[in-house]
């Protein structure tokens, strides 16, 4: 049961039960006062914590803004530039969020703290003052009554009458004060319900406004988020492909390092210990130097360098070589030594020590010493061994037969050109196609003996077996340059120009192939092979550097972009003539491209572009190959980003329960991130279509995921 009402008539009786009811009302107001006081304290702590959180968020945003990724090589892809700019975008997002948080913190002060403090001080404080007066008048009234009742009856009547009037007046004043106090007590009990709750409502309204603003910021950020997810997935897929190439090169160099030394401007270079003579009795010391020698100019550079001191580089010395002489152990108590004499210091020799006898012989050969071996420090670029495949009439026949069979039988097969065939079958098919006697007998369109994956693998194997790539060694570097910089239009124009510089047979075969790949990409809703996926597969097939180096492998992602541009602009590039002059690509500014506009995208209003992340998991059991093969570089998850403008085609998941599933357009970002952890673009089958998987061992596990809004 709640508080009992205070009747005004009871003020005149002032019974003990009336006093009990008054004390109950007073206790409730005291409890309310303490609660509001604690609530105000907690509210101030909340504001302080909010400000601390805001300061930490701003510091975090500041750290994001100041960091910049470095990249390997001389250029970044559009994806990498967008990823680089993403940290600043995150910083701006947090900054905008904290501005809204500051507004919320200010609203807490204005809508909650100040109204509660005002209610506590003005309303509850006024009741406290009334209570003090009431208690004081109560004491005064009953004291006066006690004193009056103790008056002697023998007093004069006039004195007694005067005392009666005074007591009556005091009692009337007490009753009036009691009435006002009772009225105030009941008034404040009713008033506190809205005076207290109304500020709380305003507080929660401010908090909901903050969260709503955050939701609006998230919706505005959603378009950029989706674009960035594409950039990240494309970059991850390209990284996987580049990593497999780097590992392959590393293993080649590990097996035979001498054959993979880089071409250098120096005839010989490497570390040597140089004897530094000191005055007696200190003897001499041996200091490690990095030495470089140009035979044509007989110029010798030596630079002291000590790894153990953190890589401290000393002052170098340059001299011109006069002669070099081998030192024998009977003349010096060290092995692998030789003397060099500078042209400007006749008679003064400098003793050097190599790391081994083999290295000493190489230095003697390079320096013109007496024991010279016919061995070069820097190998010439080793040409790739020529395969049996040739760019001739037979080659065009092979290409056309394979393309016709693929478009007739397997244009909608998922993972087309990604799923590889059995190595032995691929080699047998390619041998039959390259044999004049058996080529016409092979029926690829109607025969069930040859699977589509065997045909596609044979086609790729033929292209990789050519003496040089279809887009030639000579123009390799020229094709890479526009992919690294310039506007989308300038990139297309530059590649258009370069394609028409190819030899006629190369251009004709490239035209046939790219037209086919364009058709494949047009069926990407079924086969999941978007333009970017095809770029990842055919980039290393159509283009490759003449010398394998890490720097060249880092350009693999730009090879993919070149192929993407060819596919996207096939009609223009192969059906029209380019400008007469080579279009210089417009250099990109160091600053990253502008982020996509932060506009709220409702369902059906988003910029359309393919969103399927293609991830094939292949189990390999090749009975013909002892080692598991490496598959082609992982497919890019989404459509080509060779130009910033998105394409207009979408890639929903294929129908049927066994096909890939696309998340609904309204899926959450959490759905994307939780699923995206599994979408590494990693294939259990590795690169090179000439290494194939077992006949019945391909278990296709696919995931096509649309990022949430």
From TrEMBL:
<dbReference type="InterPro" id="IPR047225">
    <property type="entry name" value="PH_GRAF"/>
</dbReference>
<feature type="coiled-coil region">
    <location>
        <begin position="225"/>
        <end position="252"/>
    </location>
</feature>
<feature type="domain" description="Rho-GAP">
    <location>
        <begin position="389"/>
        <end position="574"/>
    </location>
</feature>
<comment type="function">
    <text>GTPase-activating protein that catalyzes the conversion of active GTP-bound Rho GTPases to their inactive GDP-bound form, thus suppressing various Rho GTPase-mediated cellular processes. Also converts Cdc42 to an inactive GDP-bound state. Essential for PTKB2 regulation of cytoskeletal organization via Rho family GTPases. Inhibits PAK2 proteolytic fragment PAK-2p34 kinase activity and changes its localization from the nucleus to the perinuclear region. Stabilizes PAK-2p34 thereby increasing stimulation of cell death.</text>
</comment>
<dbReference type="InterPro" id="IPR001849">
    <property type="entry name" value="PH_domain"/>
</dbReference>
<feature type="region of interest" description="Disordered">
    <location>
        <begin position="584"/>
        <end position="608"/>
    </location>
</feature>
<dbReference type="InterPro" id="IPR047234">
    <property type="entry name" value="GRAF_fam"/>
</dbReference>
<dbReference type="GO" id="GO:0005886">
    <property type="term" value="C:plasma membrane"/>
</dbReference>
<dbReference type="GO" id="GO:0005096">
    <property type="term" value="F:GTPase activator activity"/>
</dbReference>
<feature type="compositionally biased region" description="Polar residues">
    <location>
        <begin position="671"/>
        <end position="681"/>
    </location>
</feature>
<feature type="compositionally biased region" description="Basic residues">
    <location>
        <begin position="599"/>
        <end position="608"/>
    </location>
</feature>
<dbReference type="Pfam" id="PF00620">
    <property type="entry name" value="RhoGAP"/>
</dbReference>
<dbReference type="GO" id="GO:0048471">
    <property type="term" value="C:perinuclear region of cytoplasm"/>
</dbReference>
<feature type="domain" description="PH">
    <location>
        <begin position="265"/>
        <end position="372"/>
    </location>
</feature>
<keyword id="KW-0343">GTPase activation</keyword>
<keyword id="KW-0175">Coiled coil</keyword>
<keyword id="KW-0472">Membrane</keyword>
<dbReference type="InterPro" id="IPR008936">
    <property type="entry name" value="Rho_GTPase_activation_prot"/>
</dbReference>
<dbReference type="InterPro" id="IPR000198">
    <property type="entry name" value="RhoGAP_dom"/>
</dbReference>
<dbReference type="InterPro" id="IPR004148">
    <property type="entry name" value="BAR_dom"/>
</dbReference>
<protein>
    <recommendedName>
        <fullName>Rho GTPase-activating protein 10</fullName>
    </recommendedName>
</protein>
<feature type="compositionally biased region" description="Low complexity">
    <location>
        <begin position="634"/>
        <end position="651"/>
    </location>
</feature>
<feature type="compositionally biased region" description="Basic and acidic residues">
    <location>
        <begin position="685"/>
        <end position="694"/>
    </location>
</feature>
<dbReference type="Pfam" id="PF00169">
    <property type="entry name" value="PH"/>
</dbReference>
<keyword id="KW-1003">Cell membrane</keyword>
<feature type="region of interest" description="Disordered">
    <location>
        <begin position="620"/>
        <end position="709"/>
    </location>
</feature>
<dbReference type="InterPro" id="IPR011993">
    <property type="entry name" value="PH-like_dom_sf"/>
</dbReference>
<dbReference type="Pfam" id="PF16746">
    <property type="entry name" value="BAR_3"/>
</dbReference>
<dbReference type="GO" id="GO:0007165">
    <property type="term" value="P:signal transduction"/>
</dbReference>
<dbReference type="InterPro" id="IPR027267">
    <property type="entry name" value="AH/BAR_dom_sf"/>
</dbReference>
């Amino acid at each position: 049961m709640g508080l009992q009402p205070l009747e005004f008539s009871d003020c005149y009786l002032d019974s003990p039960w009336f006093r009990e009811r008054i004390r109950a009302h007073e206790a409730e107001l005291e409890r309310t006062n303490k609660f509001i006081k604690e609530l105000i304290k907690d509210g101030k702590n909340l504001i302080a914590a909010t400000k601390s959180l805001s300061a930490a968020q701003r510091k975090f945003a500041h750290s994001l803004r100041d960091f910049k990724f470095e990249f390997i090589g001389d250029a970044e892809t559009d994806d990498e530039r967008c990823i680089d700019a993403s940290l600043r975008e995150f910083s701006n997002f947090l900054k905008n969020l904290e501005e809204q948080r500051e507004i919320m913190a200010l609203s807490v002060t204005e809508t909650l703290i100040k109204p509660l403090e005002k209610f506590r001080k003005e309303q509850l404080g006024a009741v406290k003052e009334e209570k003090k007066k009431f208690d004081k008048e109560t004491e005064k009234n009953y004291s006066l009554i006690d004193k009056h009742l103790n008056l002697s009856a023998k007093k004069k009547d006039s004195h007694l009458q005067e005392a009666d009037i005074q007591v009556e007046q005091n009692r009337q004043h007490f009753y009036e004060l009691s009435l006002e106090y009772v009225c105030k007590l009941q008034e404040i009990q009713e008033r506190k319900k809205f005076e207290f709750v109304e500020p709380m409502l305003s507080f929660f309204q401010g908090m909901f406004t903050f969260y709503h603003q955050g939701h609006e910021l998230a919706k505005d950020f959603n378009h950029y988020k989706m674009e960035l997810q594409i950039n990240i997935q494309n970059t991850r897929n390209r990284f996987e492909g580049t990593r497999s190439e780097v590992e392959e090169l590393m293993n080649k160099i590990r097996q035979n390092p001498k054959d993979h030394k880089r071409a250098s401007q120096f005839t010989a270079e490497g570390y040597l210990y140089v004897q530094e003579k000191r005055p007696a009795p200190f003897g001499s010391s041996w200091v490690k130097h990095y030495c470089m020698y140009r035979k044509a100019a007989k110029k010798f550079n030596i630079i002291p360098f000590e790894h153990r001191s953190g890589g401290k580089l000393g002052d170098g010395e340059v001299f011109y070589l006069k002669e070099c002489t081998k030192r024998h152990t009977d003349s010096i108590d060290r092995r692998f030594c030789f003397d060099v004499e500078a042209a400007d210091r006749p008679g003064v020799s400098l003793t050097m020590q190599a790391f081994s006898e083999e290295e000493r012989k190489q230095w003697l050969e390079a320096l013109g010493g007496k024991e010279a071996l016919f061995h070069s420090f820097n190998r010439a670029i080793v040409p790739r061994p020529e395969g049996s495949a040739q760019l001739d009439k037979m080659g065009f026949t092979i290409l056309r037969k394979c393309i016709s069979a693929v478009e007739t039988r397997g244009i909608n097969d998922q993972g087309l050109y990604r799923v590889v065939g059995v190595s032995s079958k691929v080699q047998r098919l390619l041998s039959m196609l390259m044999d004049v006697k058996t080529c016409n007998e092979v029926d690829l369109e109607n025969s069930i003996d040859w699977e589509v994956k065997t045909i596609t693998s044979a086609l790729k194997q033929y292209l990789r077996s050519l003496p040089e790539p279809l887009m030639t060694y000579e123009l390799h570097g020229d094709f890479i340059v526009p992919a690294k910089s310039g506007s989308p239009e300038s990139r297309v124009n530059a590649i258009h120009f370069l394609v028409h510089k190819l030899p006629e047979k190369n251009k004709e075969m490239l035209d046939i192939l790219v037209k086919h790949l364009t058709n494949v990409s047009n069926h990407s809703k079924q086969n999941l092979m978007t333009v970017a996926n095809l770029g990842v597969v055919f980039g290393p097939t159509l283009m490759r550097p003449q010398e394998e180096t890490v720097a060249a492998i880092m350009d693999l992602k730009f090879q993919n972009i070149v192929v993407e541009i060819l596919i996207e602009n096939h009609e223009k590039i192969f059906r029209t003539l380019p400008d007469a002059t080579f279009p210089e690509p417009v250099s990109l500014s160091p600053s990253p491209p502008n982020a996509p506009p932060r506009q709220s995208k409702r369902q059906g209003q988003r910029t359309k572009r393919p969103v399927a992340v293609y991830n094939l998991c292949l189990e390999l059991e090749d009975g013909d190959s002892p080692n598991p093969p490496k598959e082609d570089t992982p497919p890019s998850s989404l459509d080509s980003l060779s130009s910033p403008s998105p394409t207009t085609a979408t890639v929903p998941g294929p129908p049927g329960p066994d096909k890939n599933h696309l998340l609904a357009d309204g899926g959450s970002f959490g759905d994307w991130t939780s699923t995206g952890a599994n979408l590494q673009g990693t294939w259990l089958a590795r690169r090179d279509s000439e290494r194939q998987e077992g006949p019945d061992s391909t278990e296709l596990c696919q995931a096509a995921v649309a990022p949430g809004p």
